[in-house]
Amino acid sequence: MTNEFQRELLRRMLLGRETERAIIEVESHLHPSVGEEAVIVGAFSAIERDDVAVPHYRGAIVASLTRGADIRTLIAGVLGRSTGPTRGRQRGDFCGAFAPNFFGMFSGTLGASIGYATGSALASKLDGGNQVTVVTFGDGTANAGILYESLNLAAMMRLPVIFVCQNNQYAVSMPAANAIAGGNLAARAAAFGMPAHDVDGNDVMAVYGTVASAVARARSGGGPAFVHALTYRQQGHFVGDRATYRSAEEAERWKRRDPIDTFARALLAKGVMFEQEMSALRDDVVGEVHAAAATARQDPMPDPQVVTPHLDAYAS
Ligand SMILES: Cc1ncc(C[n+]2csc(CCOP(=O)(O)OP(=O)(O)O)c2C)c(N)n1
Hints:
By secondary structure, the chain is α/β, with parallel strands linked by helices. It has a single domain (3-315), classed as Thiamin diphosphate (ThDP)-binding fold, Pyr/PP domains (Rossmann fold), CATH 3.40.50. The chain has 13 helices and 7 strands. It has helices spanning 3-24, 37-44, 60-66, 71-78, 112-127, 145-156, 185-190, 204-219, 248-255, 259-269, 275-298, 304-307, 311-315; strands at 52-54, 133-138, 161-167, 170-171, 174-175, 196-200, 225-230. It has a 5-stranded parallel β-sheet with strand order 1-2-3-7-6, with helices on both faces. The chain has a two-stranded antiparallel sheet with strand order 4-5. α1 (3-24) packs antiparallel against α10 and α1 packs parallel to α11 (275-298). The longest helix is centred in the C-terminal third of the chain and has 24 residues, at 275-298. Bound molecules: thiamine diphosphate. The site of thiamine diphosphate has 16 residues, from β4.
């Protein structure tokens, strides 16, 4: 992997984290993905422009930016401004950007997006195209029945889809350790006869490498694969959740393994980047995000007539 690409992976993680931080200053309807950026950036950097991205709702913003979404429009959309992609009809972090080959969690129903991803891979296969779909989902969502229907169909039809479990160890307040029978998600997927990998979800290079090989295999007709990436949700389930259901020591231990800090340290140690270059990169990212957020925040909220036209029917 080139030095330039390693720097780009770091930039994407910084950009995602800083964007969530800027949004949280004004909007509390957000499910922070702080600590999980290596899975999101690693997985969605491993596909090409024409491939299909189906992100978990947590991290949809980071995934959108990784796929090249316009940051100002993205922030305006999350803030429900009239300049957003739906002109204010949709707000919040579930959908990320509205972009080609990008599926948000449009229904609010967890697991549905695994079905969209499998359908997308089926469409690529039926069309004779060579698009690959990558889908991410949480450990809680990994217990949904639709995952197992999808693994079965994908394996039987050798569909070009990579299932990536972004295991942040909690589903709201439920620890994964108390919810996953057998305790081994990769073993479940392997039972469907597809390659299943366990990867360090705080190591962006490891996630990228594992997903990129699975994508190459799928593109050449080898069928689906499953990647279980273990990471940690550093913040609460939503902004304002104080996460009192877990110990401060546990959170602190994982914070020391923060994926951005560890990758930044590794790039410095390997001489891929120098201190000055890295602080310039951080400053650039902060500047870009703050310029975009400042202008998006000034944008008007939508006209109530635009977002609730149906209310007229009740008024008359
Ligand atoms: C089918 C369904 N069941 C329950 C919910 C409520 N719900 C929203 S987020 C969440 C936790 C999901 O956990 P996980 O898949 O691990 O993702 P994380 O929030 O940890 O990123 C739950 C249960 C939902 N949205 N959809």
